[in-house]
């Protein structure tokens, strides 16, 4: 049985229409006009325990709305959501004990307290036993290399240090599910790598189910094993990262340097990207033509000096998805 089940979920927001001018403002006292925005439309997916899911989409696609419905903050307009057998908004207290949430642009830390005292505070809030508390704090502090700033007030921590602290606070009670909304936003590459490594090890050690929303495709590529893509509130893809790349990217890129000028390329399976005196760059799809056949074609065009093959790129695939509105590249 899936740990998370989302079935035909819709979420609508009523937005008050405001018009310029004093007369229009006065009219709103007597009659308000509203428009309806569909944030999520007929959304369905399931997630099994222990999975790490990348939940991606452009700004305003409905990602944060989904996370808020899963965590019980928002109520779906229609459809059903169950998290570990519970309906989140009807069982908010019990559901909160099963989940951890980190919003990259919002904090749950106390500005004037050192990290050690913040951990003690959340120990009482979540009613974590002393043995479990010590074990978790030791484990997280070591993995995230937090020992040097445990006694430092939150207001004096760097952004990277605060994000590591946010992760620990959300995990002290051993939640089964961790929702991460832009956890590496604004961080330098070294801190990003620490957090990515921590998320992977957390999943391996504790089998924590993780849903990650981010615009940093390196986060998705290095952490997740499955991606769900949402666009304009509607799911457009659900599958492995490799399948996503092959579906929405233009394929593999092959650059060939010839020793001298080369013959013209005449093969519809190869799309020319760049053409210079001694260099030719093409896109090709492995399901249409093999690398061996590509090399055979190029070897007949001229004497090859150097070859470079680039795998499909996740960021390019996402860009193509946005540009095509979810249309599969062929």
Describe it for me?
This protein has 330 residues and is α/β, with parallel strands linked by helices. It has eleven helices and 13 strands. The protein has helices at 22-30, 63-70, 92-98, 115-126, 130-144, 159-171, 189-206, 217-223, 241-248, 291-301, 314-324, and strands spanning 4-16, 34-47, 52-56, 78-83, 99-103, 177-181, 209-213, 226-231, 234-239, 252-258, 271-275, 279-284, 304-310. The strands form three sheets. It has a six-stranded mixed sheet, sandwiched between helices. Helix 9 crosses helix 11 (314-324). The longest helix has 18 residues, at 189-206. The mean pLDDT is 88.
Helix and strand arrangement:
Elements: E1 4-16, H1 22-30, E2 34-47, E3 52-56, H2 63-70, E4 78-83, H3 92-98, E5 99-103, H4 115-126, H5 130-144, H6 159-171, E6 177-181, H7 189-206, E7 209-213, H8 217-223, E8 226-231, E9 234-239, H9 241-248, E10 252-258, E11 271-275, E12 279-284, H10 291-301, E13 304-310, H11 314-324
Parallel strand pairs: 3-7, 3-8, 5-6, 6-7
Antiparallel strand pairs: 1-2, 1-4, 8-9, 10-12, 10-13, 11-12
Helix pairs in contact: 9-11
Strand content: 25-35%
| Helix content bin | 25-40%
Structural class: alpha/beta
Radius of gyration: 25 Å
Main pleated-sheet profile = 6 strands, mixed
Descriptive terms for the model:
four-stranded antiparallel sheet, six-stranded mixed sheet, alpha/beta, 11 helices, 330 residues, 13 strands
Question: What's this model, at a glance?
Answer:
This protein has 330 residues and is α/β, with parallel strands linked by helices. It has helices at residues 22-30, 63-70, 92-98, 115-126, 130-144, 159-171, 189-206, 217-223, 241-248, 291-301, 314-324; strands at residues 4-16, 34-47, 52-56, 78-83, 99-103, 177-181, 209-213, 226-231, 234-239, 252-258, 271-275, 279-284, 304-310. 31% of the residues are buried.
């Amino acid at each position: 049985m899936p740990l998370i089940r989302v079935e035909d979920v819709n979420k609508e927001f009523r937005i008050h229409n405001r018009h310029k001018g004093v007369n229009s403002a006065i009219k709103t006292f007597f009659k308000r006009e509203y428009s309806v925005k569909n944030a999520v439309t007929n959304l369905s997916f399931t997630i099994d325990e222990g999975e790490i899911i990348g939940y991606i989409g452009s700004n305003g696609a409905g990602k944060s709305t989904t996370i808020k419905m899963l965590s019980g903050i928002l109520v779906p307009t229609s459809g059903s959501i169950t998290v570990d057998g519970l309906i989140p908004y009807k069982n908010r207290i019990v559901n909160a004990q099963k989940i951890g949430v980190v919003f990259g642009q919002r904090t749950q830390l106390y500005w004037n307290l050192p990290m050690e005292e913040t951990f003690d505070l959340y120990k009482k809030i979540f009613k974590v036993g002393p043995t479990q508390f010590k074990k978790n704090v030791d484990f997280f502090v070591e993995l995230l290399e937090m020992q040097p700033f445990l006694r430092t007030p939150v207001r004096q921590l760097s952004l990277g240090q605060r994000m590591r602290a946010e992760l620990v606070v959300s995990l002290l009670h051993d939640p089964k599910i961790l929702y991460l909304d832009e956890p590496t936003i604004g961080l330098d590459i070294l801190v990003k790598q620490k957090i990515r490594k921590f998320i992977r090890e957390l999943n391996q050690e504790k089998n924590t189910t993780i849903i990650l929303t981010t615009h940093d495709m390196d986060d998705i590529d290095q952490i997740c094993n499955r991606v769900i893509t949402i666009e304009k509130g509607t799911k457009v893809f659900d599958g492995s990262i490799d399948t996503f790349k092959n579906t929405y990217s233009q394929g593999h890129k092959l650059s060939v340097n010839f020793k001298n000028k080369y013959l013209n390329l005449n093969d519809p399976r190869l799309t020319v990207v760049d053409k210079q005196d001694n260099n030719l760059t093409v896109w090709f799809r492995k399901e249409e033509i093999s690398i061996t056949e590509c090399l055979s074609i190029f070897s007949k065009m001229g004497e090859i000096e150097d070859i470079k093959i680039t795998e499909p790129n996740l960021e390019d695939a996402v860009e193509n998805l946005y540009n095509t509105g979810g249309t599969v590249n062929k």
